[in-house]
Amino acid sequence: MVNQIYTTDVLVVGGGVGGTAAAIQAARRGAKTMLVSEFLWLGGMLTAAGVSVPDGNELEAWQTGLWGAFLQELQHRQPEGLDHSWVSFFSFDPRIGAKIFADWVQELPNLQWIHGRVPLEVLHQGNSVTGVRFADFTVNAKIILDGTELGDLLALGEIPYRWGWELQSEWGEASAPANFNSLTSKYPVQAPTGVVIMQDFGADVAPEIPVAPYYNPSLFAGAWDGYGAETFMNYGRLPGGLLMMNWPICGNDYSEGLQRLIESEVSRSEFIQECRWHSQNFAHFIQNHLGRRYGLATGVFPCEPTAFALHPYYRESRRLVGLTTVREQDILPMTGGQVASLHLDTIAIGNYANDHHYPGYKFALQPKSIRWGGRWTGTPFTIPYSCLVPEVIDNFLVCEKNISVSHIANGATRLQPVVMGIGQAAGMAAAMCIELNCQPRDLPVRALQTALLTDERSPASLIPLFNLLPDSPDWLQWQMYYLDNPESYPINGYSPYAALTQYLHLNRKQVLLRTSNCFTGVFQRQDQQDYTFTITAPQTPQKQTWQLVTLRSHVDQHLQTLSNQQLLKIWGRLNPAGNWLLVEYVEE
Q1: Closest to 370 (Cα-Cα) out of 462, 463, 466, 467
Q2: 298, 284 contact by CB (below 8 A)
Q3: Radius of gyration of the chain (CA)
């Protein structure tokens, strides 16, 4: 392979969740595609970075596209189910996630994957990007996508990008600072986390976790205050007694010298090593205080030491200067509503709260959360295609956290499911540019939207509607309706036309009777969107009273109509870590 030159239609550099999704979708569309990744595992945040308890896009209506297909495959491959932690509704062994992505890539004969390489140079002809040079080969491509964790192609290609904060004067974002200050200086970007997987051995038999350099136990003091040790350890519980440690309160977020991430390869390596040591010291602190029931897991990641993720969980990247920039205003709910304004060139959806990580600081942000389904969730928003396209550079797209987005709005757009949606859209766009022989900036957006909505394997929602489910017979009809009539998009997120059909309701009941457990008990209404359920049969060894939550729109609507102290029969799944009963079906 030394000095070899490859030629392809689409080149994706970086095997993060967005880059992986982009390569898969481009190849499924028929484009000759190459994917070059630094790490042996594909999937980035979801796998190689160890965050296998993803946030956002959890409601059934948002489980579409490659994200929905990934969840379905996890359910199929993980016999223990996905109900293990309380930080997420989807907790899985990262090895299973990595295998899913590898299988999807390897089943495509027109997708060539090379791992263990990082980009060294971006090749240009005028304003067009034409190729990327690696240590022992070069790839020339018609369309090139930056799917790296930190937007490395942006820097190598001298493609205009942002890094760090913008002031209120830039875009009028209410949460942005009026002036640069000590916070913006210490934290140019959000703090990453070096995820470590611990193991619950069930008894005090775990090997001792050694102290790493720079151990300072005072940094971790009070980590689980207000939660209790058991709740704290169940935060990221995975199957098989594994415990994903990605804890923001006096935990293993790491932020010393963040600027080093983009200064040089040497300085980045130094930061990554310190980040791992910090997580090792956090694990040592946990074991020292909670006992040797807890230790480091073995055999999780494919390199030594196997308890530590392959790379940090980066929450923020270099960010493209694109045709459009997503701002805080674009992710906040419309006045009096539950959804953000609709981007006319929407290509992906997200719904997570705006979440920023600055260790030691509490940073106030405009609220974008609602009570729904008996719990808190984030108000949905859309991602525009134009934030994937550079202002001045041709043959190039981004497909990761490196979209054109403000520092403030990045706190909501950076989550794993929405980045997977961004990657799927970018891959589809790249393949269509090859088909139409056009530049990304000239690609007809409606053609891209239609392709995403009608994809044969993984059709993706583009319009967030709480009551429009992906398996509804009229799902495509109403997605297209609101693309054609954006002025009709309802500010509460509920289409008055796309009501759940009786057919869908009854058909789903038959499936749920086979896949869920049945519980009889008494319903208690604590408050608006706050319900508990006292189980009377069957008896369970856990607590008898559980919080009722749901991800299904028709169940959410049903729960709102029930009377306090009403006797019910419920089909669903118990999650002891979160003390909730996830409701799939209700029978009065």
Answers
A1: 466
A2: no
A3: 23
CB 506 within 8 A of CB 587: no
- Does a cis peptide bond (omega within 30 degrees of 0) precede residue 538? yes
Q: Please, are residues 164 and 187 in contact by the beta-carbon 8 Å criterion?
A: no
pLDDT in tens, 185-237: 999 999 999 999 999 999 999 999 999 999 999 999 999 999 999 999 999 99
CA distance from start to end of the chain: 66
Reading the block at residue 288, the tokens are 């020292």
CB-based burial of residue 119 (10 Å sphere; 0-12 exposed, 13-18 middle, 19+ buried)? buried
Domain positions in the chain are: 4-159+316-488, 196-296, 503-587
- pTM of the shown model: 0.96
Q: Hey, what CATH topology would domain 503-587 get?
A: OB fold (Dihydrolipoamide Acetyltransferase, E2P) (2.40.50)
Best CA proximity match to 252, nearest among 283, 224, 231, 226: 283
Residue 502: pLDDT band with limits 50, 70, 90? very low
List Cβ neighbours of 31 (8 Å cut-off, separation of 6 or more): 9, 10, 110, 430, 431, 434, 435
DSSP 98: H
The CATH class, in words, for 4-159+316-488 is alpha beta
Mean pLDDT, residues 295-307 taken together: 96
pLDDT > 80? residue 501: no
